[in-house]
Specification:
6-stranded mixed beta sheet, 21 helices, alpha/beta
């Protein structure tokens, strides 16, 4: 059982608890926390787990990573139950058949209609659980608090806010790029009335917002005073919670197509967190044939898979696409994958040497905007991952095609995944089964969906797409603070002004 956590950039042996990793978020050296060893599944899991509910699977998976001495069984079961009781589907993440080869994994049945609810409902309850336990023994009015600071390209922000709203001893500050998220995404974040929620609209890109968050984490004095925590996918608990739906969808599809078939997962990828959860599932022992990265025109991951060079393309910058949650220059979670690939293929399973080499690569990325991985790392990545790139025109065309054939409406991110899936099916020598992850409800991207479907007779966005709950958001008053430039000092001052201590 994996119980030791470490930073991706550390060249020293270290042992951290699950609680410390969750509450800290980003390591002091700028690295991401991960378990140095990935636990293996029970030898009979295919038989004994196949009929479990989503919550039961979640418990079995989380238990492999979290010591019972840190979270007892009954407490963990309660955390899981409370986290997924907020979902509109009893299955939490149901499968939707598109055709005999393609099944969509609907991840948008949580409070904010996006896949990030699966992790962030759980993370919010974890924060509250750990703080309540820490504060139970405090005297003289002293309390541990956490100030959650996160950046969002759309869905992380609202999912974090809905996971943390009203939580005792938790304040949440979400940065988002002004004008670069959809109107409904902005409304979801800025209309929440809980006093512990704060939204900061930053005049810049998502990468600017993410850089500011990382600089705040790197400020020891600020951290010591405000106890900064992370909800972006840099927080290990998010990656851990997302593993469950790979197992759940695998077992659901096996019941349809027959037992013991390997499955391909296609994942719309920006920051690499969602598909990284699939990598952990695969390394634990889930029979996965391929994990396919679907990118939009901000295609750093696809370029790496094809060339071995990890490059920002700074001269081009971030391109605003129809799938804005994937509009990033750097995929933060890719660092976790690289650590394992280095450790297993370059440094002869030496954790410290892997951390030192990865730290050098990250310095190259910061200073030169790129680095090139050796062949053994790239070849190892290609043994389980593949990738493709989908542009705006193809995104619109795919939404139209699936609506025409199935009367099913895709959001643009899901369309990137479905188009990628269709391309791989064309190349297959023999039929394979694909689970393509559907990451958001189409109502969150009205402009793109309408652009694709407005010409269809009898189509109506309000009737066919928009849930009443989201419709009501436009009538609510917005609460936000505008930051006129991507400045870490201005963001820190905004946090200080709100917390007033």
């Amino acid at each position: 059982m994996s119980q030791v956590y470490r930073s991706t950039r550390s060249d020293k042996h270290e042992e951290l608890s699950f609680e410390d990793v969750v509450m800290t978020g980003l390591a002091p050296d700028g690295g991401l926390y991960l378990p140095s060893e990935i636990p293996k599944l029970p030898s009979n899991f295919l038989e004994t787990w196949k009929n479990l509910s989503f919550n039961e699977l979640a418990f079995n998976i989380l238990r492999l990573y979290i010591k019972e001495s840190e979270i007892p069984n009954e407490d963990l079961k309660d955390l899981i139950e409370r986290s997924y009781s907020t979902f509109r589907s009893d299955e939490v993440t149901p499968l939707q058949k598109i055709n005999d080869q393609i099944y969509l994994l609907e991840l948008f049945h949580g409070p904010t209609y996006a896949f990030k609810d699966v992790a962030l409902q759980f993370v919010g309850n974890l924060f509250e659980y750990f703080l309540t336990r820490r504060n139970a023994s405090k005297k003289n009015g002293e309390r541990d608090i956490i100030t959650v600071v996160g950046a969002t390209s759309g869905d992380t922000g609202s999912a974090a806010i809905y996971g943390l709203r009203g939580k005792k001893d938790v304040s949440v500050f979400i940065l988002y790029p002004t004008g670069r998220i959809s109107p409904i995404q902005e409304e979801q974040m800025t209309t929440v009335e809980d006093e512990n929620v704060h939204t900061l609209s930053v005049n810049g890109t998502f990468d600017d917002c993410q850089d500011i968050v990382k600089m705040i984490f790197g400020d020891k004095e600020f951290n010591d005073k405000y106890h900064v925590g992370a909800v972006n996918s840099i927080n290990w608990a998010r990656i851990l919670a997302q593993q469950t739906y790979y197992f759940y969808s695998y077992f659901q599809l096996q019941k349809i197509i027959g037992d013991n078939n390997k499955i391909r997962f296609v994942v719309p990828s920006g920051n690499f967190g969602d598909i990284l959860a699939g990598y952990y599932a695969y390394k634990m022992g889930l029979p996965v044939d391929k994990l396919i990265i679907a990118t939009n025109e901000n295609d750093i991951l696809d370029r790496f898979m094809k060339t071995g060079e990890y490059a920002k393309q700074q001269e081009i910058g971030v391109k605003a696409t129809y799938s804005p949650a994937m509009d990033i220059l750097i995929s933060s979670n890719f660092e976790r994958l690289l650590w394992y690939l280095i450790r297993d293929n370059v440094t002869d399973h030496n954790d410290e040497k892997a951390g030192a080499l990865l730290n050098d690569w990250m310095k190259q990325l910061k200073e030169n905007g790129k680095f090139t991985a050796p062949n053994e790392v790239v070849d190892s990545a290609r043994s389980i991952f593949d990738s493709d790139r989908v542009d705006n025109t193809e995104t619109i065309k795919t939404i139209k095609e699936i609506y025409t054939e199935n009367k099913y409406i895709l959001d643009p991110h899901t369309a990137v995944g479905v188009k990628t899936t269709l391309r791989f099916i064309e190349k297959d020598q023999e039929p394979k089964h694909y689970i393509s992850l559907s990451t958001a409800h189409p109502a969150k991207f009205s402009e793109v969906v309408n652009k694709a479907l407005d010409t269809f007779e009898n189509y109506s966005f309000e009737k066919d797409v928009l849930p009443d709950e989201l419709k009501a958001l436009s009538t609510k008053e917005k609460r936000l603070k505008f930051i006129d430039e991507p400045s870490v000092s201005k963001v820190k001052q905004a946090i200080k002004d709100e917390l007033k201590f």
